[in-house]
Known about the structure:
The chain has helices spanning about 20-25, 65-75, 115-120, 125-130, 145-150, 150-160, 185-195, 215-230, 235-240, 245-250; strands spanning about 25-30, 30, 50-60, 90-100, 105-115, 135-140, 165-175, 200. The protein is of the alpha/beta class and about 250 residues long. A six-stranded mixed beta sheet has the order 4-5-3-6-7-8, with helices on both faces. The chain has a two-stranded antiparallel sheet with strand order 1-2. It binds guanosine-5'-triphosphate and magnesium ion.
Amino acid sequence: MSVLPGSIIVSDWHRFPDSREFFSRILHKKRRRKFGLLEAPMMPPHMNVDTVRYKVFISGKTGVGKSALAARLAGLDFPKMHYETTGIETTVTFWPVKLKDSNRVLFFRFEFWDCGESAMRRFDHMLPSCKEQVDAMLFLFSFTDRGSFEDLSNQISRITESSDRVVKLVVGTKFDLFMHTDVTESDVTRFKEVWGLPVFRVGGDVSAGLGEVAPLLNALAENLWYQDCIAASSVSIATAGLTQTDKEIIV
Ligand SMILES: Nc1nc2c(ncn2[C@@H]2O[C@H](COP(=O)(O)OP(=O)(O)OP(=O)(O)O)[C@@H](O)[C@H]2O)c(=O)[nH]1
Ligand SMILES: [Mg+2]
């Protein structure tokens, strides 16, 4: 279950002139600004924006591109070589979003948790740490590795429990190597039908372009915000059932 893109937030807001002063807070010389764990964009006092924080776990087998995706979403370059992540690494990304009905602007602070697969196998406490109070999970497969795609269902059921209140999105990496793809469009379509989860495609060099990461970051923001709104109004929803508006924005 996920939210129809653009039903809660303005899609492609980074293309609109009124977003410029907000996106300039996460840019430096046309590149993305790097934020440490304790850092945040500098806001002038007249810009009255709230920041909402979320923990996002990136899951997938070794070499699929978890660390590369965390870097890509933060606008940072990643190595061409594969270096196994030896433990848990966290990457902070800020992303401004405009809510459609109120025109309110929110800064989403995503903390991406990425754990090397071999460290995950070796140390039992890694997976519980990554899952603790997690708000969203990105399940990765690589377009150049059919095994990683076929393992998706296992991966999702192994890591999540049906009771989990967690946003789930699927990301296919190395889409730039489509000449060597092992996963067809119809495979992806079938998966989406069975699981009802959106699938995003990423690949290629990290450029300064916001457009490349916007669809995935916006989808994360929109689904997380919706999840929070549902949780906040869960008492009334439990008694009255989902409202018509809720039904319309869920796909
Ligand atoms: N062409 C291309 N290469 C990619 C992409 N994403 C990752 N890679 C490459 O794939 C290799 C593995 O990526 P990593 O991000 O280190 O893999 P990982 O999932 O973090 O692996 P572990 O830390 O061992 O679990 C690296 O050589 C990356 O440069 C992509 O979208 N396109
Ligand atoms: Mg890694």
